[in-house]
Amino acid sequence: MDLNIRGNRDWSGIIKVCAKTGCAVKTNENLRDYTTFKIGGTADIIVFPNSAESFGEIVKIIKEYDINYMLLGNGSNVLICENHFDGMAVVTAQMNGVKIEGGHIGADCGVSLNKLAHLAKENSLSGLEFAYGIPGTLGGAVCMNAGAYGGQMSDIIDSSKYLNFETLETGTLNAEQHEFAYRESIYGKNRNLIMLSAVLKLNTGNIAEIESAMNKNMAARREKQPLEYPSAGSVFKRGTGYFASKIIEDCGLKGCSAGGAQVSEKHAGFIINKGGAKFSDVENLIEHIKTAVYEKTGIKLECEIKIWKY
């Protein structure tokens, strides 16, 4: 979700203050266990807020003690280096409240898209079928306007609630105020805004038809994507008039590898961790792909995943 670097410190007092908020706290945890790429180094402290209120308290602590911090949802769209992170990782996995009213689903930022898709189906609500199988949380999905199979978050967002990191004020954005574009939103443009929750506007549908569409999408994922390996999904953004995976394949890069990282032979848009891949392996492979594609086609590929070095 986001990364900010500041300075070194003694953590004992900060850990006690964080524990008083009611949030779960872990120390010296490896961040690879919190990313789908399974790559990363240790962090001094990981905090798990369980509500918008506790999240706000943690942000106050970050500001008061001037702490290095990173925000993670499911870690499904990020590549994190193996260096020790002298700071706090805030993981939203326990912010998982959901409320359904009529055709609207309100949910905290840490709720998984798969859970939301299932809840929508069980309540005969259509519109989230495209999101079934995307390994991310609502927060990350809204921030990057995640999409697949003809749908995207901008199609169904009604509103979202945010915390302003600088002012500590909360506010609400309506659909238009999100400034959605391809894999982009106001949350990506304005790093001071941290999404806390969102309301999705769905349509009444038939459970059997919704389930059929979800199953069809999941079958397509299993057939076309290397789900059996750790990855961060599509590495590069789609360009105007082309798909990055097709360009990469046409340049003969399928199966190309660097250390434990490989361009998937099933889907050239994915870089997979075949076992023991390091940050540098993936980074080098990304640069090799960019260079080879540019030399052969003149196209400059742009990364979709976030790359965090510190």
Characterization of this structure:
This protein has about 300 residues and is an alpha+beta fold. The chain folds into 3 domains: about 1-90, 2-Layer Sandwich (Uridine Diphospho-n-acetylenolpyruvylglucosamine Reductase, domain 2), CATH 3.30.43; about 100-210, 2-Layer Sandwich (Uridine Diphospho-n-acetylenolpyruvylglucosamine Reductase, domain 3), CATH 3.30.465; about 225-310, Uridine Diphospho-n-acetylenolpyruvylglucosamine Reductase, domain 1, CATH 3.90.78.10. It has 8 helices and 20 strands. It has helices at about 10-20, 50-65, 115-120, 140-145, 185-190, 205-225, 245-250, 280-295; strands spanning about 1-5, 25-30, 40-50, 70, 80, 85-90, 100, 105-110, 125, 145-150, 150, 155-165, 170-175, 195-200, 205, 230-235, 255-260, 260-265, 270-275, 305-310. The strands form 6 sheets. The chain has a 5-stranded mixed sheet with strand order 1-4-6-3-2. A hairpin with a 2-residue loop joins strand 10 (about 145-150) and strand 11. The longest helix has 19 residues, at about 280-295. The two termini are about 15 Å apart. The model has no long low-confidence stretch (mean pLDDT about 95).
Question: Which class do the helix and strand fractions yield?
Answer: alpha+beta
The order of strands across the largest sheet is 1-4-6-3-2
Count of domains = 3
The SSE string, one letter per element, is EHEEHEEEEEHEHEEEEHEEHEHEEEHE
> Strand count, sense and closure of the main sheet?
5 strands, mixed
**What is the rounded distance between the termini?**
15 Å
Query: What is the class of the largest domain in the CATH system?
Result: Alpha Beta
- Put simply, the count of helices is 8
The dominant shape is globular
Low-confidence stretches: none
Average residue pLDDT: 95
Helix content: 25-40%
C-alpha Rg (nearest Å): 20 Å
User: Would you give the CATH topology of the largest domain?
Assistant: Uridine Diphospho-n-acetylenolpyruvylglucosamine Reductase, domain 3
Estimate what percentage of residues fall within beta strands: 25-35%
